[in-house]
Design brief:
alpha/beta, about 40% helix, TIM Barrel, binds 5-hydroxymethyl-3,4-dihydroxypiperidine, about 450 residues
């Protein structure tokens, strides 16, 4: 059985972060407020009242963080650009100091031999755009494409590949449907225009990138969905959840159409959001790579109460992460094979743009993280051996960081521990393990 030592020669090793989770410096150098600044200031919105105001102070400490990446031997680093840092109100005049930060960051990465892989939107929408309706408002998609053009014009000479959106499923559901993330709207299925407008923004931005000779990817959090039993009601519930979590986002981009949304009780035009020609705008630019953020599979049962057409139920008899997420590494292989079954030749090369787990701070060494990553990389090697084109793996995350509604302390995903009082970075055992794995992979192909 192939394992992580059998990954192909050109397999790329990386680590991932996101702007609001690590940068801090939210009030510096002309950055405008984002939805997360506003949301995190609401009493009770984030555990312990934490915010990303300082986070890992990466805005000032990025040279030290790049040294940590160099120490790992990374090929690539996935980070996100804070839209309100470069366009403080989301549109209109650019902020030269914000642009200069990303210019410096990219140059420093390249000097360290690390390929930058930026994400344009990882949930920190400029608050001024939210005040105009945010992703519920169609214009936001057009503002996003303008912002993509600003960044591509600045960095396109040095950055060949871009990710437009991060996890539009999570942003739509947590941000607009249930309100546990910014901007904190609780619209349930009426949140879905926000999904459509993000996809439209993706399509428009991908065209902007292609016009400049750059490659466009989209990263989503996908999950293989399994019914809790063979009962027809559980199977129907699983189909509804798969539609919401996976197909709603992947079908328009890869196939140019929405799945049957009637299983969610949602009209085909998503409450009037889908205009004639939109699906062409989303699909026609084509996707140069699918970014797959994988954490866990999902088990679904028929609903026990009115409201949603599914219940999410736990997967028993498997380990769980500190977050309570079930650990089922082979589900990654199954997900990849399922994507090939569903999309066939329409499936572009895949890159794992996030995978990792939170481990309690007191766990020393962080063996559960090493076990998690090694088992998922073994599953990936098996999927590749079964013919799936997977180009690389970016672990989530380089550093402990601001884990959204969970705040700073409770969910630690980093290969590097961060003491948020002192900003001291301390590499964990998983850091040394990943470094040695990368080195062993390179040594195998050294001539
Ligand atoms: O921290 C998040 C990240 O921002 C998006 N993907 C999942 C991670 C862990 O929850």
């Amino acid at each position: 059985m192939p394992d992580r030592f059998d990954l192909p020669e050109d397999f790329r090793w990386g680590a991932a972060t996101a702007a609001y989770q690590i940068e801090g410096a939210v009030g510096e150098d002309g950055r405008g407020p984002s939805v997360w600044d506003v949301f995190a200031a609401r009493p009770g919105a984030v555990r312990d009242g934490h915010t990303g105001a300082v986070a890992c102070d990466h805005y000032h400490r990025y040279p030290e963080d790049i040294e940590l990446m160099r120490g790992l031997g990374l090929d690539g680093y996935r980070f996100s650009i804070a839209w309100p840092r470069v366009l403080p109100t989301g549109a209109g005049p650019v902020n030269p100091a914000g642009l200069a930060f990303y210019d410096r960051l990219v140059d420093a990465l390249l000097a360290a031999g690390i390929t930058p892989l930026p994400t344009l939107f990882h949930w920190d929408l400029p608050q001024a755009l939210e005040d105009g309706g945010g992703w519920l408002h169609r214009d936001t998609a057009y503002r996003f494409a303008e912002y993509a053009a600003v960044m591509a014009d600045l960095l396109g000479d040095r950055v060949p590949t871009w990710i437009t959106l991060n996890e539009p499923f999570v942003h739509t559901v947590f941000g607009y449907a249930t309100g546990t993330h910014a901007p904190g709207r609780t619209l349930m299925f009426e949140a879905l225009p926000a999904a459509h407008h993000q996809l439209l923004g993706h399509g428009l931005a991908a065209a902007v990138l292609h016009d400049r000779g750059l490659a466009a990817m989209l990263s989503n959090n996908l999950t293989p969905v399994r019914p809790a039993s063979g009962a027809a009601a559980d199977i129907a519930a699983a189909q509804a959840y798969d539609t919401l979590h996976n197909r709603l986002f992947t079908d328009p981009v890869l196939l140019g159409r929405y799945p049957d949304l009637s299983v969610l009780g949602v009209p085909d035009d998503i409450f009037g959001a889908v205009h004639p020609g939109d699906l062409d705008l989303i699909h026609t630019p084509g996707l140069d790579g699918l970014g797959l953020n994988f954490y866990n599979p999902t088990r679904v049962a028929a609903p026990t109460a009115p409201g949603l057409p599914f219940d999410l139920v736990d997967i028993p008899d498997v380990p769980h992460t500190a977050f309570g997420w079930p650990v089922v590494p082979d589900a990654l292989r199954q997900l990849l094979l399922g994507l090939r079954d569903t999309y066939g030749k329409a499936l572009p090369p895949v890159t794992i743009t996030e995978n990792g787990c939170s481990v309690p701070e007191s766990t020393t060494p962080d063996q559960p993280r090493i076990d998690f990553m090694s088992a998922h990389l073994d599953a990936l090697a098996q999927a590749i051996a079964e013919g799936i084109d997977v180009r690389g793996y970016y672990t989530w995350s380089l550093l402990d960081n601001f884990e959204w509604a969970e705040g700073l302390f409770s969910q630690r995903f980093g290969l590097v521990h961060v003491d948020f009082a002192t900003q001291q970075r301390t590499p964990r055992a998983s850091y040394a393990w990943y470094r040695d794995l990368i080195a062993a992979h390179r040594a195998r192909f050294a001539r």
